[in-house]
Write a structure and sequence with these properties.
There is one protein chain. The protein is α/β, with parallel strands linked by helices. The chain has helices spanning 3-8, 18-23, 42-49, 64-73, 91-94, 111-115, 141-147, 150-161, 166-179, 185-196, 209-220, 226-236, 250-265, 295-300, and strands at residues 32-35, 56-60, 81-84, 100-106, 237-247, 284-286, 308-314. It folds into two domains: 3-107 and 223-314, Rossmann fold; 123-220, DNA polymerase, domain 1, CATH 1.10.150.170. 41% of the residues lie in helices and 13% in strands. It has a seven-stranded mixed sheet, sandwiched between helices.
């Protein structure tokens, strides 16, 4: 990245529900904690500031640019931080055998990635189709849009974007790419607009929003990694350790809610059995109802409006 680019785009992310999420961890000064999605380092900075020299914070991010930016922002606490440039889905392998006292996951895309046109996440700014959170990953949005079958496109638009016009949008994409590859976000956005036209106006918002969300989730495998990560983190937690998870759309929140419920239930025996034979015991306790952003935060940060925070504690 050249100097001009660095000056124009600072890797930052306004942390959503900062104090609610970090307070929910009940940080111990000498504890070990994990920020699974370091991003701009907002949550990490707050956690690190509550640790002493014996405490440790493991900062994960799959984006090398995020890691480098976080190292600078968190430099006052460098002595208590370990940076790990890996997908948070690999947390179990990366921290194998290390007991932790809490972990936070902010499943939102960073403001930097959304606002930096070159990353290809935005349906408003024209840029090459990319959407990779780690630009070393092999599959980009270009590959999804230009190589997936009609059925494959319908599946991701329906399942990951909850897009009711999925079949029509997929048809328009297929037709458009028969003439030439769809190379930019602007091209894709216009195709979606043409596909659903005036019908989208009834739903409000940009007509391509759900399509871009779906493709981004597919490119980065965002949903598939949530349940195994929460399960791995639960195994790493010391008794009394906590998980703090922020989601931004119903698909993510449903997975977190269901995974927490499963880990809090324990027994998986059929209800008709008179006694438990599976031997599974509850691992987590849900320690609050879902937490939503305050009215004050909603006024300051519009991107927080769909956020939900869920907390759980290791039994």
């Amino acid at each position: 990245m050249d100097k001009k680019h660095e000056e124009k785009f600072e890797f930052s992310h306004v942390p959503v529900m900062l104090y609610e999420a970090v307070d929910g961890l009940n940080v111990k000064p000498d504890g070990k904690y994990v920020d699974c999605t370091t991003g701009g380092g907002g949550h990490s900075f707050e956690i690190a500031s509550r640790l002493n020299a014996q405490g440790r914070l493991f900062c994960f991010d799959r984006d090398p640019e995020a890691i480098e930016a976080a190292k600078k922002r968190l430099s006052p606490y460098a002595d208590r931080i370990t940076f790990i440039n890996r997908n948070f889905g690999e947390v179990g392998d990366a921290l194998d055998g290390i007991g932790i006292d809490g972990a936070i996951i902010d499943l939102g895309v960073s403001s930097y990635q959304l606002d930096n046109a070159e990353r290809g996440f935005s349906y408003i700014k024209d840029a090459p189709l990319d959407m990779r959170m780690n630009q070393n990953d092999p599959k980009s949005a270009y590959d999804v849009v230009n190589t997936y079958s009609k059925e494959g496109l319908i599946r991701i638009l329906r399942d990951y974007g909850e897009e009711r016009f999925a079949p029509k949008i997929a048809s328009y994409i297929i037709n458009a790419r028969e003439n030439e590859p769809i190379k930019t976000t602007g091209q894709l956005s216009e195709i979606v607009k043409k596909a659903i036209g005036a019908m989208a106006a009834k739903d409000g918002g940009h007509p391509a929003k759900r399509t871009f969300q779906a493709i981004r989730i597919e490119v980065n495998g965002e949903l598939a990694v949530i349940e195994p990560t929460l399960t791995a983190l639960t195994s790493l937690l010391n008794p009394g350790g906590r998980l703090s998870v922020i989601t931004f759309h119903s698909l993510e929140d449903r997975i977190v809610k269901q995974t927490f419920a499963k880990l809090a239930k324990g027994c998986t025996c059929p209800p008709k059995l008179p006694i438990c034979v599976c031997g599974k015991k509850p691992q987590l306790e849900l320690i609050s109802k879902v937490i939503l952003p305050s009215d004050e935060e909603l006024k300051i940060n519009s991107r927080s409006k769909s956020a939900k925070l869920r907390l759980a504690e290791k039994i």
